[in-house]
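Why do we care about 3D structure at all? Because function follows from shape, and shape follows, mostly, from sequence. That is the central idea of this module. The next example makes it concrete: a single protein chain, its amino acid sequence, and then its structure expressed as tokens.
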Amino acid sequence: MAEGTELTAPATAEGPWKPKFNPWAIAVVVALAAFMEVLDTSIANVALPHMAGNLGASNDESTWVLTSYLVSNAIVLPISGWLASLVGRKKFFILCIFLFTLSSLFCGAAPSLAILIVFRVMQGLGGGGLQPMAQAILADTFPPQQRGLAFALYGITAIMAPTIGPTLGGWITDNYSWRWIFYINLPVGILTLFLVYRMVEDPPYLKRLKGAGIRVDYIGIGLLAVGVGALQVLLDKGQEDDWFGSNFILTLAVVSAVCLFSLVVWEWRHKEPVIDVRLFKNFNFATANLMMFTLGILLFSSLVMMPQFLQTLLGYTAQSAGLVLSASGVILLFEMPIVGQLTTKIPAKYIISFGWLALACGMYYSTVRVDLLMSFQSAAWLRVAQAFGLGFLFVPITLAGYIGIPTEKSNSVSGLVNFMRNMGSSVGTSMVTTLLARRAQFHQTILASHTTVFDPALRNQVSGLSRQLVHSGISEADAQTHTYGLIYQTMQAQAQTLAYIDTYMVLAIGAGIMFLLAFIIRKNDPHTGGHVVVE
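And the structure:
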């Protein structure tokens, strides 16, 4: 579609197509399905030790419960548009909900870790189609000028679910059993299945495209499965296996690079690709995907870092750390609808620019405020500062991805945009885990070089602490040993805190780069949603 062409709702002979049911009722239903799936990507994290103990497995083995889900989920995401065209979007969406709900039941009843992993793969396959199909349904259900409001509702699910997932998972596991983190999907899944069957329908253009001469691209599917699967395992296990110091990780990197490069070349030349990589010729679509990838990195990096800092260094429980995150969740809950309304009045590029600037400032502010004496209130406000910019990014970036794209490509657009965000979340989690470990080692080495018996300040501190321990009833010999132990613990805590500061600075720089990039996005007319203004 040429620039300057306005996107309109799919039309019939009688005029623009409209769904039979209220669009906002449909939006709530499909957002509920997406919320259920996104929640499941994070709710199981805190329950891994309980699963390992109950199923007779080690903690390392239990991490495959997460990896297996992420791998199968990542494989389905980019081809969800093609699958929807093959069988029909409504049927595909219903099939995904059914498979996700049924496998949740089997996951909860799994008698061993191996069986649990098998059903988690099934759950990931079902969940892979829920996010992109929910977004594509919203794109077709609402006219372009109202998409921002609809995507705001979807954005609440995509950002809120990872925020409350660990807290909810910890509460369920502590008070009931880890099996209930899967069983809670059953009532939601059954209700959503019924409502989607009753309310959602395919627009006329999808009915015409359904299975129309589509042939299965087995080579493309195979390259995708192997390439994305290897990449996801690499990201999940890289730090644990010392990255390229491990032959296993090195092999995965080579396999992933070769398969993904071959996939792009193959799909670019294929007449009926499972992934429409030619969409990346559209400048706005390519830029929006890069930004969504970066947003995934920053969103999940900050979600990992804050609770980890509070629990490992400040002694917070999982529930208390979750309460700190909840403050930002409340802000985003009110912020997203406002941003959705702004997209109907202000071009998306300006909202995106402000969002990246706010996010960069929030991450930079974290480098100043993070310390070992931080109070609960300070931590909550710091998380609000970190998350404030997120609400100004998700909706307008999603809108920017649809600018200049034909309506019949909505399924492919949503699949690729969600795939990029999910891969960004995996890269972000892996990146901060590695950065925190490496920078902590670096700072510990620097601090240790100043901690010698020739340092007068250290000798004075050892002498003072030893006297205090002796006065508390410990013998002089044991007091000195305990003193050096306490000093070493303090040094480790300081080194880890400095590692968090360094990592937040990296995230701030990344957000700053995206802020500059936002200005080259083509301006859209906010009153029509998809019309590109030639500047």
